[in-house]
Amino acid sequence: MSTVEARAENLIASDWNGGTLPYHVGHKKLGMWLFIVSDALTFTALLMGYSYVRMSSAEWPTPFKFSPSIVFSTVMTLCLLASSFTMVMAVSASARRDKRAVRRWIGGTMLGGLAFLGLHIYEWLHLIDEGLTPFALPAEWVQHWPNASPLFGASFFAITGLHMFHVLTGVLYLGFVALRIKRATHEDVEISGLYWHFVDLVWMFVFPLIYLMSVDFGGGH
Amino acid sequence: MSSRLSTISNLWKKQDFLLNFVCLIIAAGFLLLAVSNLSWAGDFLTIDSLFMMAVCLLLAGVFLFSPALWAYENGLFKRLLDVDDPSAAAPAEPIHFAGSTKLFLSVLGALLGLTLVEVFLAYVEVGLTIMLTILIGLSLIKAVLILAYFMHLRYERLSLILTLVPMLVICICLFFIFFPDGFRVRNLRPY
User: Fold this and answer.
1) pTM to 2 decimal places
2) Which sign, positive or negative, has the C-alpha torsion A156, A158, A159, A160?
3) Which residues of A touch B177 (CB under 8 A)?
4) Is A160:A175 a contact under the CB 8 Å cutoff?
5) What share of chain A is helix, strand, coil (3-state, %, to 5)?
6) Which CATH superfamily is domain A26-214 in?
7) What is the pLDDT of residues A50-71, one digit of tens each?
8) Minimum distance, in Å, between the CA of residue B14 and any CA atom of chain A
9) Which residue of chain A is at minimal alpha-carbon distance from B113?
10) Contact A84 B183 (CB under 8 A)
11) Which residues of chain B lie closer than 8 angstroms to A198, CB-CB?
12) How many Å apart are CA B122 and CA B4, to the nearest integer?
């Protein structure tokens, strides 16, 4: 067989003729990728639902003052981005087979996630304290935005609540991987990294659409 | 003589077991008190209830100390937290992980910068369409950066990218079908 034919045969046979892994990734990793796409669609559905309700109502509350809401949520975003970076460093350390470093970097990632959770729960308590419930706005807001849809609470709590649940699950998952690092392979660390980056990715969309679109300019929008 | 030694060592083991058992029961009791305090205290965030909580947790910690020390001396912690695997054969081939620390740091810097631009934009009063376009556009750029470099998609096979990304984009575009109905509802409102 000439080299040209051999190369062509190689190209065609490379991924799809059996004897090798499809897409050249492991089964577990492909499964995680497919899960990520499906979960991204779940969050897209929620965000689209929120967009629909918002654009079809006459008025929508824009209650997020610079301090504490926007400051806190920006810090939360920076926490998640930093934790994504530490996760990449963890995967990189795992490729060097430096398991102690992997554990340290994953610990840093978990810290970022826990900081995010703590700040977010504070944000939630602050809003609940003001009187926001899933199906009704606080009296103060009704005065300020009289024709506003009461669904601000439902959309806010549902979307950020589901995201917080994903962050919590991610922290627990990472903790499990870090604890069992002796028996975890490089692929396991990579897969947990994929999940964590997905959580960060979702926040990249949730943060502008929910927080930055509802900034309180002080005199009402 | 050796049977005496073995009886003594057995007694030590029984002592250990009894001590650990009693300590764990008492610690569990205090932890239960701490948890019950959450529901018994009317307003949890008062000095009284927080003090009660702190005392219960402290006493639980005191009674957990002895079993923990026993576990440490008997190597239980080492077995749990051990990192080096002596049974694994020395791995031959290095794992390829493309991307240097510098690259990841610069991606992180870009992400942070774009975030700050978005926050700044929120306070500049542009029209709704422009604001939404810029926000979603910047978020898309951030998403692509994370997908490509942090999730390593750039270094995977093209077939994987072509399987995952178009599926996502098509489904997201299908969602936009609902927006004309939203406009209809908005125009129907009397106010």
Assistant:
1) 0.79
2) positive
3) none
4) no
5) 80, 5, 20
6) Cytochrome c oxidase, subunit III, four-helix bundle (1.20.120.80)
7) 999 998 888 899 888 887 889 9
8) 31
9) A78
10) no
11) 151
12) 81
